[in-house]
Amino acid sequence: MLFGEQAGDLPGDVTEHTPLDQAMALLIDLLTAVQGTPPADSGSGDRTLDGQLRQWARSQQRPGTPPRAARAAILIWSRVHGIVSLELTGVFDNRPLKAQRLIDSEIDSAVRSLERDGS
Fold it and tell me: Is the pTM of this model over 0.85?
């Protein structure tokens, strides 16, 4: 489980998506749009990982997501949450480093990698 609750882990018959699921779906859609039409070889270079990324995208109700866009979404999600966790624990307190600049940098880096891969 990457984030949120899996439906099978919740009591009763819960089929709604959590706000985290919705945020991830939006991120996937944005990254897929940024990538545009992926090249024929839109994988990561690792066939096993690509299969896992395709399976993960299907679990997010985004079956047409290219592996590179899925990978970028997961990396952004994990890196941003890591930065936020550090910020919440006070690691950046009384230091000249601003968490928002790191978050912006991570997102920009992921978008640039998709643009390069899509060329």
Answer: no
